[in-house]
Amino acid sequence: MVKKIFRVLNTRRVAGIFAVFFLILYPAFAATVPALKGRVNDYAKIIRDNDEREIEEYLEGLEQASGIQIAVLTVPSLDGDDISSFGIKVADKWQLGDKEKDNGAILIVAYAEHDLRIEVGDGLEGSLTDAKCGLILRNVIVPEFRDGNYSDGILKGVKNMGAIASGDESAVSQSVREGESDSDGEEYIPLFILIVWLLSALFCIIKGAIRGRGKKRGRYFYNGNNLVWIAVDAAMRNIMNSSGSGGSGHHSSFSGGGGHFSGGGASAHW
User: Fold this and answer.
1) How far apart are CA 223 and CA 215, in angstroms?
2) N or C of the chain: less Cβ packing under 10 Å?
3) Integer Cα distance of 87 and 120 in angstroms
4) Residue 222 in 3-state DSSP?
């Protein structure tokens, strides 16, 4: 009987240690955020040189005229991450848009997964709504991508984003202007936000329970005889800060202005 009890305790201890190490090491396996090199960051190498120059010039002119900052990011793969959570990490690291106006936006392409995402800063959510972002993705970009015209799709998508954000309706594609009316009611809730909320709630419950029985040692808690170090706090910090490990140290003349993003935008698949 005593041996059985010790066997159970050892099993729980091992399981607890593995859980802690998984939470701590998880960021190493998630997609990291590439460095912001310019307005076009084509890490997947799917944009033609002449289109890249045209996009750069268009977005530079847009920023000079309106202050709106839009950037493009293509990546070869998300490495198991989902496009919504990756988009938030990119937005948090790049911080496009003015700090006071939050007028930034990002078009993200994940080549291997065939996923697309438009991430919108808080200040542009009134014009570049979730529904309009969805129309740009589905009606402008996806049809081009399905035909293998990645460069054309990105160029057209960016120009539609800029036209809507700046209020230039004449430059918006007809397929976006006359999009289905029922799309106006669509809401896109990033899975990442829900997961973080659930993990935070779980952490608070565990922390409260352990404080009543265990001894506090720094940011960790030692729980009685089970010999399990509860490192959820440190793991959560690592997960939330994992985007910081993606930088290459490359400095660019183009950089974000401190804009804030709260998950507005839309995703699509081609």
Assistant:
1) 7
2) N
3) 10
4) strand
Distance CA 74, CA 95 (A): 17
3-class SS letters over 51-112: HHHHHHHHHHHHHHHHCCEEEEEEECCCCCCCHHHHHHHHHHHHCCCECCCCCEEEEEEECC
| Sequence-distant contacts of 199-207: CB under 8 A, at least 24 apart | 199/236, 200/236, 202/232, 203/232, 203/233, 203/236, 206/230, 206/232, 207/232, 207/233
CA distance 73 to 82: 15
Instruction: Tell me how far CA of residue 212 lies from CA of 207, 208, 215, 227, in angstroms.
Output: 9, 7, 9, 16
Q: Give the span between the Cα atoms of 6 and 50, in whole angstroms.
A: 68
At 227, which amino acid appears? L
Residue 211's H or E segment, with its range, is helix 191-211
Integer-rounded Cα radius of gyration of the chain = 22
Count of other CB atoms within 10 angstroms of residue 186? 14
Residue pLDDT tens, the chain, 270 long: 655 555 544 555 544 444 444 444 444 445 699 999 999 999 999 999 999 999 999 999 999 999 999 999 999 999 999 999 999 999 999 999 999 999 999 999 999 999 999 999 999 999 999 999 999 999 999 999 999 999 999 999 999 999 999 999 999 999 999 885 444 444 444 555 557 666 766 665 665 555 554 444 333 333 444 433 334 444 444 444 444 433 333 344 789 999 999 999 999 999
